[in-house]
Amino acid sequence: MRTRVLTNGLELTELGVGMAQFGNLYRATTDEDSVAAVDAAWAGGIRYFDTAPHYGLGLSERRAGLALSSRPRDEFVLSTKVGRLIVDNPGGEGGRDTEGFDVPADKRRQWDFSRDGILRSIEESLTRLGLDRIDIAYLHDPDDFRDQATDEALPALVELRDQGVLRAIGAGMNQAELPAHFIRNSDVDVIMLAGRYTLLEQGALDDLLPLAVERGVGIVAAGVYNSGLLSANRVPADAHYNYEPAPAELIDRANRIAEVCERHGVTLPEAAVAFPLLHPAVVSVVLGARTAAQVESNFDRFDTPVPAQLWRDLHSEGLLPQGAFTSYLEN
After folding, report:
1. What spatial distance separates the first Cα and last Cα of the chain, rounded to whole Å?
2. Domain-located, residue 314
3. CB 107 within 8 A of CB 86
4. Residue 115 covered by a domain
5. Which of 17, 102, 282, 293 could form a disulfide with 24 if both were Cys (CB 3.0 to 4.6 A apart)?
6. Which Pfam families match (predicted)?
């Protein structure tokens, strides 16, 4: 498995495992499935794993810690997130979580980007993970907390990085504008960008990605299938985009991309996985998995060679912008 290195020396495998499904995303899974998924990832060379307290109200972190507990600590990179504390939820006993995870509702999420909230979040994550340090801590979706995230949360993460509790800090978001603000105004190492730099859309080329290259900030690409829109060889009429029914024009665009891929013997999801890694700012692509079989499927897509002519043809048919196309040729 190839790796790429952040400016601070932290090394990430080009393919990572996203552990939202370890938190029972949409349906229940088991500890055994989670361990088997990590075992399969490890056997294939993956050494980067991403979780968050939000995923299953702490369940994903606990399963991540369990699955990695037998692995040498210096041989893997683990990221988690801050900004949502997991607190008691009086009255929720007997109910189920309402944010997409099949877990009991006796706990709930509480937004908190204060300094104390960040310190508490990291301490609680370390306990759930069973670790004494975290490699990367991302602010998790601070869209409505720009000032507090800048003035309190990121300085708190810098303190923890200076103390060795963290090795790198950044933000994980579904937009490009606020991460660019953090790069300009804070000492961040890495940004996890979900869904905003994909085969379907490249808005992050306008500002975030050039800025990341200029400042030496790594980009971890997540959500590369755009909520599933790029996850099948052809896009069904009922596909979703940004967790809502996809507009007809996006479905048509994705299917036009799929047609070009097919002419080159490549599937749409295979090209979607390869695409972000062509940009010099991108250090890893994180794909979610629940089981060992899903990890193996991710490997198959990642390992598929994609000819350079495919990107040229997408550009010539108006499906990739000139800026994107040029950066690929240079690489």
Report:
1. 19
2. no
3. yes
4. yes
5. 102
6. Aldo_ket_red
